[in-house]
Write a structure and sequence with these properties.
MOSC_domain; three-stranded antiparallel beta sheet; single chain; MoCF_Sase_C; Pyrv_Knase-like_insert_dom_sf; globular; mainly beta; seven-stranded mixed beta barrel; 11 strands; about 140 residues; MOSC domain-containing protein; about 15% helix
């Protein structure tokens, strides 16, 4: 499966929308340098498909890349169909899928605006096996 990176997004803290940036540096077994989700755990990097964001836009929401707190916005890859352990090349980096979806313990601002959020059902999480730089336009290879 081949797709592409639409946006790379970071935030200082967990639980907030992320801001698109020109590029991110991923560090092996850490995550994105400068991002609040990085660290020694299984959810170092989050990915969400542009197609999932489009579903929310179709409901009339004014949302864009990073608004669902995803680090990497992709296009052309069915992320939720990937098995745990799948390897994903993003630009220079290599990720391993560690979790599909998540349980939201609290309702975020997006949920209240939309009445729903795609991240718990359609977002995926990964750990960094090989670090490097990722930019919008980079290939996503599963």
């Amino acid at each position: 499966m081949i797709g592409k990176v639409i946006a790379v997004n970071i935030s200082k803290n967990k639980g907030e929308r992320k801001t698109p940036v020109p590029e991110v540096t991923m560090r092996e077994e850490h995550g994105i340098v400068g991002d609040g989700h990085a660290g020694d755990w299984h959810r170092q990097v989050s990915l969400l498909a542009q197609e999932s964001i489009a579903k929310m836009q179709a409901l009339g929401l004014d949302v864009k890349e990073g608004d669902f707190a995803e680090n990497i916005t992709t296009e052309g890859v069915d992320l939720v169909s990937l098995p745990i352990g799948a390897k994903i090349e993003l630009g220079e980096t290599l990720l391993e899928v560690t979790q599909i979806g998540k349980e939201c313990h609290t309702r975020c601002a997006i949920y209240y605006q939309a009445g729903d959020c795609v991240m718990p059902k359609e977002g995926i999480f990964a750990r960094v096996l090989k670090g490097g730089v990722v930019r919008p336009g980079d290939k996503v290879v599963v």
